Amino acid sequence: MAAPDDFDAWFRLLQTPGLGREGVRRLLAAFGSPEAALAATPAALTELGGPALAATMARPAPECVPRLAAARAWLAGGDDHHVLTLGDAAYPPLLLQTADPPLLLYVQGRPELLAAESVAIVGSRDATPQGLANAREFAQALAEAGFAVISGLAAGIDGAAHEGALAAGGTTLAVVGTGPDRVYPARHKALARRVVAHGAIVSEFDPGTPVLPENFPQRNRIIAGLARGTLVIEAALRSGSLITARLAAEAGREVFALPGSIRSPVARGCHALIKQGAALVESADDVLEALRGSRPAAAPQAPETDADPVLAALGHDPATLDALLARTGWPTAELNARLLELELDGRVDRLPGGLFQRRVAA
Fold first, then answer.
1. Are 85 and 4 in contact (CB under 8 A)?
2. Span 88-141, pLDDT tens digits
3. In which family does this protein belong, per the annotation (predicted)?
4. φ, ψ at 130 (rounded to 5°)
5. What's this model's pTM, rounded to 2 decimal places?
6. Which one of 109, 199, 269, 339 is most buried, by most CB atoms within 10 A?
7. What is the pLDDT of residues 187-218, one digit of tens each?
8. Under 8 Å between Cβ of 169 and 143
9. Do 17 and 147 share a domain, yes or no?
10. Which CATH number belongs to the domain containing residue 40 in this structure?
């Protein structure tokens, strides 16, 4: 978990107008830490990104101070209020392997559960009674098998999935598109309290962030990134659940879809996923069999030495961040920074599925 000073630096960097997550990663690759990036001279910033970057870093957001105060107040609001940064050893490893891992996560509940074996269950907000029953049944069975159930706390399938996991006495994680202090929809406040008691609510959005439609597609990448697999139960053809499924597939994770009636609008998204290669499932056993058969193998031995220790550990085959951490023994933040630097230098490529590969010279 981030220390107060570390958190302040991460927060201030992320609040810099016009910088964005990619801009922050570029600064981290160049300077190694948020503190060093914030302390960088205009000359160093100009050398890295030109006068525009130096000007951007010289203009802190006026609302940063009250927002930081609100975030600190939330963190002080309970022993179960936590924040994880990209550099924390406790940062969930599966999420770290994705193409766009959040740089900062607010967690209310038990942050260690973000690294648990988990399955995401998502679907329509306007679910049918049968869809809701299916979500509860699948979630309960998966929780009884020892998997944490991840969803988005939304109406419909999401809420039913959380309820099914709780009914089994299992663990459930709710990744929300608001600040960690907001519950949407409001009728899920009691459910949210139960989720916190038996798992965690997770958000990358600062405390006080209201319901904004553009935030929900962003949170979907976190749902997909935390889970070993994503199960879609009822979804229209234009659905946020299909975004989650696509992101899961791009991260190299399993994607499952429950078929329905050919006359049902909320079955069409699932049928489209199946046509695109998602596994058709009829029971929780189908999901469990696929997940148990896809457990990652042990990391291979480190290759022979090379001039750069990270390139040496990478070798000439794609490798996950977990494998590189094991091979190098480096701290997560330092390894992430070096990989970003190598990527920006054109020496390493980031591949789908959270893999890294040395770029072959033309």
1. no
2. 888 999 998 888 899 999 999 999 999 999 999 999 999 999 999 999 999 999
3. Belongs to the DprA/Smf family.
4. -70, -40
5. 0.80
6. 199
7. 999 999 999 999 999 999 999 999 999 999 99
8. yes
9. no
10. 1.10.150
